[in-house]
Amino acid sequence: LGYTGRLSEEKGLRFLFEAVSQLVEKNSELTVFLVGDGPQRNFLEAMAKDLHIQDHVVFAGFQKDITQFLPAFDVFVLPSLTEGTPMAMLEAMSFGVPVVATKVGGIPKVITHGKTGVLIAPSDVSEIVSALIDLQNDTECRALLSQGGRELIEKHYNLDVQVRKVEALYRELL
User: What's the pLDDT tens digit per position in 38-61?
Assistant: First the structure.
């Protein structure tokens, strides 16, 4: 599992850790990579020890280039309690990484549940567990989400599309 971004309370990573503590009982090879840093790092490191999952969590710290990590993720998890439209999620989708994310902020405007990702309720550990078990057991679903996410990014978020939208807006304003 992978996450990239700020390690702060609003990202809901404590709920991911609670889910991981349940998941490692079923899959002892599970590893979570956290790429990023922030004010909750010490809290999350202590929480990992308290939940006995410290051997399953890698704190990679801040990285200038996350593109070396994204292809290694089987699933990108974004358990945020609040968000806009998260660039980290879009980047994961551009690499074809299936996404599990909460129904907050702009995320439901990007993710179509079951087509371009999996939407879950914020702070719901059981939904995180269920979504991750389903994706672990269903390689066809992971492949569909991977393809759907990548196609969405190529269609709506690539640079050429964005430049054409801005040009059209300028023409309309002129």
Answer: 999 999 999 999 999 999 999 999
